[in-house]
Amino acid sequence: MFDLETLCGWINEKKDIGGIVFLTVVPDNGIKPIVAVCKKGRNPEVWKVAKKLKIGSAVRIDGQYAETQISKKGLEFIPCKIVVVSEMSEEKIPIDFSGKTPFLLDTKLDYRYLTLRLPRERAIFIIRSEILKLAREWFYKNGFIEVHTPKLCGAGAEGGATVFELNYFEKKAYLAQSPQLYKQMLMSGLEKVFEITPYFRAEKFSTTRHLNESWGIDMEVGFIDNEEDIMRLLEDLIVHLVEGLAERCSKELKILNVKLKAPEKPFPRIKYDEVLEILRRRGVEIEWGEDLGDREEKILGEEMTKSGIDFYFITKYPWKVKPFYIMRENYLSRSFDLDCKGLELASGGQREHRINELVNNMLEKGLNPKDFEFYLEAFRYAMPPHGGYGLGVERLMMKLLNLENIREAILFPRDRWRLVP
Fold first, then answer.
1. Which residues are annotated as catalytic?
2. H or E segment to which residue 374 belongs
3. Which CATH class is domain 5-93?
4. Which residues contact 261 (CB under 8 A, 6 or more apart)?
5. CATH number of this structure's domain 119-149+180-194+204-409
6. Radius of gyration of the chain (CA)
7. Residue 185 scores a pLDDT above 50
8. Closest by alpha carbon to 46, among 36, 54, 37, 38?
9. Alpha-carbon distance 268 to 346, whole Å?
10. Whose CA is closest to 239, among 336, 340, 388, 335?
11. In the predicted structure, residue 1 carries a pLDDT above the cut 50
């Protein structure tokens, strides 16, 4: 007598061949389909229930896994009881649960909850979950503590037109562009912090690489020598994430037809001036001191790919294109971007910890220091040299998984046009 097992999930496919009904079930949070084989000669009652089942129904099936596995589609399961937990109320299903019929991106996003019954879509978000788990493991192992900073703020981290403004009782407030100001303030009392957090940016982009609500892995470290300390920590994390995904998510990566190989350390460091020279050789001229746009980043990525390099740092940016909190070095900055295959994944550097210099930076950027008094106050109490970065989760996923659109990497995207579901 074998112990019965219970299988809960949804019917993605049904194949009725005379005295046998094959039910392809996508189980709970699993990735591999399970095929329930219902034979009339073995269990007539189960067979009758199976014949009447509608595609998409939620079921609970008691039974046993077959001793001999023949099906190539999934694990074979021999049911002894099928309970229909819930049936589809809609006659027309917007998604082909078999996965054979492609659908538009907008359909995918409108019915994200249904697409999660498909192995490919599940694989993406299982991997996303594992990325965040691996990141936390790395930070804890390296002596960081996790913090949570406000998402309703009295000032934006970078100010300007990219903040979402809202009414906060009798005052104006803003959705946090990043945890930048608060994680810096924490350097007055803690040495190593990290946060996995949403970003809100009111950028009017409608590209394949921009979102108005995204998620980032942020960190800040005190008592550093320079931005190199931060770059070393970031490349260590990237290697840890890639190695961890390759080890733990082999089934999901196979479904996505992705092979991951950890990049070698140290990642190349390319100075801003060197980037401009590479662009000139490709016939692209930008004025010194201008920030790199999507086009320039893509061209640089193409050139790096020719050398077999996926991950690389861009360093020594002109200070005028960087936020006020980045430390100056004459007309340059102690900042960096981490790019992968032509897409910026992270931005970071050494911060300005000297209050007088910080105030001067604000004034030069056209900001009023009085609006940031809550932030500046922390710099009056022996603020050590510090630095950090913000790493975009969806952008990292986009490059690691070869996704064509960043909206594929987040469950319910928020962009200029999409506010529901």
1. 201, 203, 209-210, 344, 347, 395
2. helix 373-376
3. mainly beta
4. 242, 246
5. 3.30.930.10
6. 26
7. yes
8. 38
9. 15
10. 340
11. no
